[in-house]
Every structure is written in C-alpha cells, then in structure tokens.
Design a protein that fits this description.
The protein is an alpha/beta fold and 178 residues long. The protein is built from 4 helices and 9 strands. The protein has a single domain (13-149), classed as Rossmann fold, CATH 3.40.50. The chain has a 6-stranded mixed beta sheet, sandwiched between helices. Helix 1 (12-30) crosses helix 2. The protein is globular, with a radius of gyration of 16 Å. The two termini are 17 Å apart.
C-alpha cells in the first residue's frame, strides 16, 4: 500500500493529538447534555474509535451507512441511505462524526434527513475539511484539519474500498485512480 502514497499529510501521532483536543472540546461543550454520536460508515470508523475514547462525558453511539461515491474518486451527487439508525434521536444532542467534508452533499443530505426526527440539536465533527470543493453550504462545528484538494486515503478514507487500514492520512498517487 505504501508505494501508492505520494506523501503523508498527517501521521498517526498528529491525528491522535488533534483528536484528543477535539474530544476535550466536545466534552466541555456537551457536559450535562444527552450526547448522541452518529458515525458515518465506513470512513469514520478509526476517527470515531479514537474520538469516543477522548470524550469523558456519557454518550450513546450509532452508525449510518450512506453511499454517494460508488467506486469512483468523484462524487455522483446522489445520496442513498444504506443503513439507518437503530435508535431514536428525538430530544438528543446529535453529533455526526464523519471522515471528510468534500462537496458537502452527503452531510447536507444527512443533516436535513435527521432534522426530521426532532433532535434537540445537530452538529458535525469531521476529521478533514476540503473547503475548495464545497458546492453546498454546511456548518461544521468541529474540524480536525483543513486539507488541500488532493485525493486522500488512510485512517478510514478509501479509494475503491482500499487503504482504509493505513494508520496515517496520505495523498494517493494520481496514477492509481487516473
Ligand atoms: P461529499 O458528499 O462530497 O462531501 O463527500 C463526502 C464523502 O466523500 C466522504 O465521506 C468520503 O467518503 C468521500 N471523500 C471525499 N473526499 C475524499 C478523499 O479525498 N478521499 C477519500 N474519500 C473522499
Ligand atoms: Mg464517508
């Protein structure tokens, strides 16, 4: 896998340090509130696993699966729900945990969809943000890092379902997906 990576952007150590800060912030912001974490499968899994351990207030968690990409490196703009929540979120303080915000289409759709279930509040924590690619407006309360417009893999991020298990985040060599 390593030979397919052009450059490492964030090492495992850097990721863990930043996630620790975000977890602390979330714990402060939601203390005394009914926090409900929703991870977006499958990309958010490593982020969720590390983030939840840095949150020191009681919380519940659940996962959703959506598809917007297929096996391409460009978004199709069409969002489908493949797995819905197992629990009700009414009156809960929902925090969606996502790997990366790119066009914003996926999260815009998810937020609007979940708002219909009357949560007390709904916010987003994303590990990476690619602001240059945004096509729809989306408010992200917690952001790990701003990243340039490259196709990134590792730490949950995939290309055609590969590279999710890399412990760091790197830029995928163009010849792999061109
Ligand atoms: P959006 O709907 O365009 O914001 O796309 C969000 C989703 O696209 C993310 O949850 C990722 O699964 C995927 N994605 C966007 N950019 C990248 C990338 O650089 N590498 C891997 N997946 C990406
Ligand atoms: Mg994703």
């Amino acid at each position: 896998m390593k030979e397919d990576i052009k450059e490492v952007l964030f090492t495992e150590k850097e990721l863990r340090a930043r996630i620790k800060e975000i977890g602390k912030q979330i714990s402060e912001d939601y203390r005394g509130k009914d926090l409900f974490l929703i991870g977006v499968l499958k990309g958010s899994v490593p982020f969720m696993a590390d983030l939840m351990k840095e949150i020191d207030i009681p919380c519940t968690m659940d996962f959703m699966a959506v598809s917007s990409y297929g096996n391409s490196s460009k978004t199709s703009g069409v969002v489908r729900i493949l797995k819905d929540l197992d629990f009700e979120i009414e009156d809960k303080h929902v925090l969606i945990v996502e790997d990366i915000v790119d066009s914003g289409v996926t999260l815009r759709y998810l937020v609007d969809y979940l708002k219909g279930r009357k949560p007390a509040s709904i916010e987003i924590a994303c590990l990476l943000n690619k602001p240059d690619r945004r096509t729809v407006e989306i408010n992200t309360k917690y952001i790990g890092f701003e990243v340039p417009d490259y196709f990134l893999v590792g730490y949950g991020l995939d290309y055609a379902e590969k590279y999710r298990n890399l412990p760091y985040i790197g830029i995928l060599k163009e010849e792999i997906y061109k």
